[in-house]
Design a protein that fits this description.
228 residues, alpha/beta, five-stranded mixed sheet, three-stranded parallel sheet, globular
Length: 228
């Protein structure tokens, strides 16, 4: 408990004082299944994101991790938290433009090429799930964009035109997917959207089993998207 309090104070003080620290977190979700709910930090991502002057990144793969680390070492006026998953994650294919846009905190990873019926927003280990779900939805005739949002605070700092290009205000049907607390995503999905996330503590079981148990499946994402 003393160590945890020290860690929390270190985060707060570096943010308050504008000190360039880089905090690296691992085992970020229910993917740390076997250690049980005491080791599944479903609430701590929101805590970090809501800490003033803290920049928080949850990368989906090696490419996003490189950009997150580069951003952290270039940020001089405050700390950065890099939050990583334990499990192996698939590398996502990107154009040069998409790679450049990672530094803006969020970008369109899968573009249907027209106004989408629904937008899937995901971070970290759930980006792959969003991409796979988009493939299945597209096969059913649903026009889907997938937005990867490794750093919400960085995205929030962009100009209105860029934010509108990623999350157009005319598309209100949105599903956020993250293995953390659902409440954080209300400002991105709005009243007409939904979230695949956590509203309880986790459980003790292999990570893959917990993902299925808590609804982090293609079938559940498709159901929520079509329900909108």
């Amino acid at each position: 408990m003393m160590f945890m309090e020290y860690a929390r104070n270190a985060v707060r003080m570096s943010a308050l004082m504008g000190i360039q620290n880089v905090f690296v977190y691992t085992h970020d979700s229910i993917g740390q299944g076997e250690d049980g709910p005491t080791h599944q930090p479903i609430e701590q991502l929101a805590n970090l994101r809501m800490t003033p002057n803290m920049s928080t990144w949850r990368p989906a793969d090696a490419t996003e991790s490189v950009v997150a680390w580069k951003t952290a070492i270039e940020r001089r006026n405050g700390p950065t938290s890099l939050v990583f998953s334990r499990q192996g994650l698939p590398a996502q294919a990107r154009t040069e433009t998409q790679v450049a846009n990672i530094a803006k905190g969020a970008y369109v990873l899968v573009d249907c090429g027209q106004t989408p019926n629904v937008i899937l927003i995901a971070t970290g280990s759930e980006v792959g799930l969003a991409v796979d779900s988009a493939v299945e939805l597209a096969a059913d005739g649903v026009k889907v964009n997938v937005v990867s949002m490794p750093s919400a605070d960085t995205f929030d700092a962009q100009d209105i035109s860029y934010k509108e290009s990623v999350l157009p205000s005319t598309v209100t049907k949105r599903v956020a997917i993250e293995a953390a607390h659902v409440d954080y995503w209300a400002k991105y999905v709005g009243f007409a959207g939904d979230v695949v996330g956590m509203s309880t503590f986790g459980e003790s079981a292999p990570g893959g089993d917990l993902y299925k148990h808590f609804g982090f499946t293609i079938e559940n994402v498709i159901q929520k998207a079509k329900a909108l």
